[in-house]
Structures are given as structure tokens and as C-alpha cells.
Amino acid sequence: MSATVKSCYIRKLEKSPSNVYLPDNTPIFVGRSLETGIADTKCSRRQVRLCANYAEAIVTVQQVGEHACGFNGFKTQKDVRFVARHNDRLELLYGKYAYEIEFNPPPRVKNYALRKRSYELEADKTENRAKMLKLNNYSDEESRNDKEEDEEEERSTSNGVSFNQKAFTAGSSALSEKSNNDSSVSAKWDSFDNGKLLIYTSPLVQHRSKIAAYDMDGTLIKTKSGLVFPKDCNDWQLLYPDVPGKLKQFHTNGYKIVIFTNQAGLSTGKVKVSDFKLKIENIVRKIGVPIQVFIAVGKGIYRKPTIGMWESLEKENGNITIDKANSFHIGDAAGRPKNWAPGKKKDHSSADRLMALNLGVKFETPEEHFLKHKTPPYELPKFNPKNLSQTDDVCKPANAKLTLQQQEMVLMVGSPGSGKSHFVKNYLKEYGYVNRDTLRSWQKCIAAVEQYLNQGKSVVIDNTNPDPTSRHRYTEISKKRNIPIRCFIMTTSMEHAKHNNKFRELIDPSHIPVSEVIINTYMKNYVPPTLEEGFKEIIEINFIPSFRNEQDRNLYEMYLLEN
């Protein structure tokens, strides 16, 4: 058993925090006053009646003023009583003057005993969103005893669904008409592509053409511990107090609220999927707005900055076409450099900004969106796939011959992902082919070269060959046999090579991923070849991509890397 509740407050979330004390079993009226600091005439001096029940750790709430209050993201109606509990959100005016219910010490789940007799579900007709729990004859004394209902409440909360959420979900089935026939009236989890994408659809989500999309970590929430990464699935709090109010405003203005979050840890087992699902449900409940959450598990096509999650949103939007011109994405992975604001660290990536660029939707950082800060400095990747040179010149000089009539050796030089194999298969397919990835050692490569030459064939060596030592093995054969050797250098930049490597991963599941560390190491050790090494000619080769279909081309021309 948890300790007996000793005090109850409503704690102000906006501007300078302040508390209003709620004594046990004593009705208190809160509204426009010196105590709250509210001078808004729309807020009555007796705006809301609050009565705390310490024994049950609940507060009965009743709107008394003419203008609606807000409760966990939903509008109240005058003279309708409902039940609030620890950490529930109360707005004295809908969307304004936010407070949070706070019991001290915080009660445990099993102390949330709620009397459920004689209730009706009231609909907010204009937004057609929630059903409020109406307690016509709620008695503070009567609510203290009912073991069966206590156990029912404990079961509901242990499953990650609060009492209010259950009431909303149950009530939604009683709606005689919905503003959108495809609205989700109950929470659901879906898994796609063998668990690579998870989608949570909270109760009463409505499919709409305008999308207000948000990253999650560092955008809507932050850790309570102050650590960069959460220590567990309970280590979170809202980034700003105004997060619920802001999202509610956009929902009221006709936006569908969506979260896109990369969660590679779910694929490694570092985070349990069941724990993370409960975390998502709790975050959505805390915000108090219908939200659809897309979770990229691992590092495939769904992970930002690629647009797999957005494409899934388009399929899960009730056949309503998305209006990108009036949609937006908010995220903290924005490519901001070190000290973009005094003392601020460099952003961990650019994934959110790059996804927005890939989609062609407006982008803002959390500071711009929630705090109205000016646009900060940021850096885009050096390689922009949309600006890829469309030159038809495969090589430099342009008049260089790619193949010769006489027997020869061709030594390829280039990093992984530079397009060596692509070039060889398209332009040197008549030559004998030697590749260390398949033969596994340079000794076997040497033996294969000798075998092709003994057969009178020309041969191409498709290895990285970054330095004179690795190249010397083949120039020595050229000298001994008096067979000319030419060097073909891929001009592909390091950033372009990494892009190519990522593209191959995305379109070819059988492709073995190449770590960016390997590409970095190659570039670090690279020594440009010279004629003095024994080459008859050195030719620069431009990488010119080719595609199986238009879908592949569209993907290639997007930002695929997170930085």
C-alpha cells in the first residue's frame, strides 16, 4: 500500500509555475483571481468547481463558468462533473491556463478507485472527438467503497489504458454519426513488414488532408534524468508545458496529428517492444490529443530521412489525399552546428530536416515551433542527390577508349560504393573479371589474373586498390609479361559513395551492408595512382547511375543519409 495522501494541488504549467491548494473533501472554486494571475474576462471568477478526495486520490471537476474548460485535451460542458486524478491536465479555459493535478505523495494505481454508477457519455459535437464521463449523482462519500470497481480500475490501468481513455473508447461506439467514417474510435497497434514498422492509432483519430507531423524524442518529450538517452521507458517528460495546447490547437484547426520516430533500439533488443508500446500510449494520453504514431524499427526504408513512414501514412489515411503544401514536420534532428545557440551542442543528425526536404513539406525545429525562435543556422550534406551531374561522359578524357583490341589489364581504383562494379558490368563485360570480395584473398586474385592472361584474355581487377602497395602486385605482372596495364579511377566522392551504399541496402535486401567506417578508412589511406607506378594510362571514370524503374530513381534522388 502506498502512503496516505497528505495534500493535493493543481500546479500551473504555463509561465511562472504556481500552485492552488485543494483541501480534502472541500469544494474550491478556481478562476479569474490574483491567486491564479488570470485577468481574462472570459474566465469566470468561479470558472471551475474542484473537490479533492484524498482517500481515493481523485478530484471531481465541474465547469461552472460560461466558457468551456479543457480536460486532458477535450472540451468540458457546463455543470457536467467528471473525475480527474494524479497528473491529469486541466485548462481553466479550453486551450489556455493549463494546470496539472498533483497529489502528494503520488498514489499508486490500485488507489485510483472510481465509482462508475449513473454515468452518461457527453459528445463534443463540433469536433466530434471525446465523450466526457458524466456523474449525475456523484457522492464523495459513496465513492470510497466498491471492491469490484476498484479491481476493474486496477486492471484497466495495468493494461496501459487510463479510466478516462476507456470511457472515451466505450463512448465512441455509441456515436450516432461521425464526421469521418474512417475515424479510429478505439486504440490499436499494427505491425507491418515483419515488424520493421509499428503504427499506434489512438482513440478517435480522424483521417485528414493536412498533417502536423512531429518527431518524438527531443521534440515532444525529453528525459527526466537529464541523460541523452532514456534509462528506461518511464524516463520521459514533456519538452515544454505548451506541447499539449499547441497540438490541440492544430487538431482543432483541422490537422491530423502524427508522430514519426526512429527507434533502432527496438531491433536490437535493448528496448522491449511491450515496454515501448506502453510508453507511447502514456505519452499520447499525457498530450491528450488523438495521435497516430509511426515507429521505424531498425535501419530500413522506414527510418528517417527516407520517407517510408510517410508513405505508410498515405496508405493509412482513409483514402484522403495529403495536402503537402499545408502540412509540416517538426524535429530536433535539424543539422544545426555546434553553438547554433550559446552553449548548444551540434545536432546528432539532420534526419528530420532531410525527410521534410525529401517530402517537400515545411520544416521547423521545436524551438521555432513552440517558442517562436528565429530560424537557426544549419548545414546540409555536401552531397545533394538532386544535383547529381547528368553528364553523358563516362570518362575523362571524353575520347578515351574504354576497351582495347589488344590484350590488356585494367586495374580499378575506388572506394566501396563508388560504382566500380556497376561500371565494369556495363562497360567491360567482355573482360575476365577478378574481384577480392568473391575470391577472399589477394593471392587468389593474382592466381585468377594469371589464369585469364594464360588464356589470352584481357582482365579487369575490380578491387579498391587504394595505395601503391596494393597496386604494385598487378603492375609487377604487367612488367613481367609485357602486357599493358591501365588504371581506371572512380571520381565518386566519399559522400556520394555512402549514398550509393545506402541506396543498395534499401533496394536490395540481399546486399551485404558496408560500414561507413570502411569507406572512411579507404579515403584516409587513399594515395592517387601515378604513371610512374607502371600504368600505360590513367583514366577517370564518372559514376552514372541506371535504374530498374522510376520508383528507384525517385528514391535515389532523395537524401538517404542522416547527416
From TrEMBL:
UniProt keyword terms in alphabetical order: DNA damage, DNA repair, Hydrolase, Nucleus
Stored Pfam families: AAA_33, FHA_2, PNK3P
GO cellular component, one term: nucleus
Keyword presence, tRNA-binding: no
A GO term, aspect molecular function: polynucleotide 3'-phosphatase activity
Ranges for domain PNK FHA: 8-78
One GO BP: DNA repair
Keyword set includes Hydrolase: yes
Domain of life: Eukaryota
UniProt region (Disordered), positions on chain: 133-163
Segments forming a coiled coil: none
Subcellular compartments: Nucleus
Protein name: PNK FHA domain-containing protein
Provenance organism: Lasius platythorax
